[in-house]
Amino acid sequence: MAGVNQVERDLIRMRQREGIELAKKEGKFKGRLKKYHKNHAGMNYAVKLYKEEDMTVNQICEITNVSRASLYRKLSERNS
After folding, report:
1. CA-to-CA dists, residue 17 to 1, 6, 26, 27, angstroms
2. Using N-to-C axis directions, what is the helix angle for 68-79 and 57-64, rounded to 10°?
3. Residue 60 pLDDT > 90, yes or no?
4. Residue 74 half-sphere exposure, CB side, CA atoms within 13 Å?
5. What residue ranges are annotated as transmembrane (predicted)?
6. Among residues 54, 52, 58, 80, which one has the least CA distance to residue 71?
7. CA dist 51 to 8, 29, 43, 73, Å?
8. CB 42 within 8 A of CB 50
9. What torsion, rounded to 10 degrees, do the Cα atoms 71, 69, 35, 51 define?
């Protein structure tokens, strides 16, 4: 019984992979969208506050509802 289930599961994965490849070719499958895209108001405001150097990172994160890790990641991306 387990062998039949495994074969069925492999078939499902193969069909799923084919469907994803087809959707990518048509431009419909793009993966997960980023939470903080380049026009995200909260993140842009957080970066602006950080560059003004008037507040701590914790204060900025509380005001903008952006996580510390995300803020630091965005700052390192912009500096690279």
Report:
1. 25, 16, 14, 15
2. 110
3. yes
4. 24
5. none
6. 58
7. 56, 36, 12, 15
8. no
9. 0
How far apart, in whole angstroms, are the C-alpha atoms of residue 21 and residue 63?
A: 42
Query: Hey, is 65 helix, strand or coil?
Result: coil
Give the amino acid at 50: Y
Q: How confident is the model at residue 80 (pLDDT cuts 50, 70, 90)?
A: low
For the segment 6-19, the average pLDDT, to the nearest whole number, is 95
Average pLDDT over residues 46-59: 92
Output the pLDDT for position 50.
93
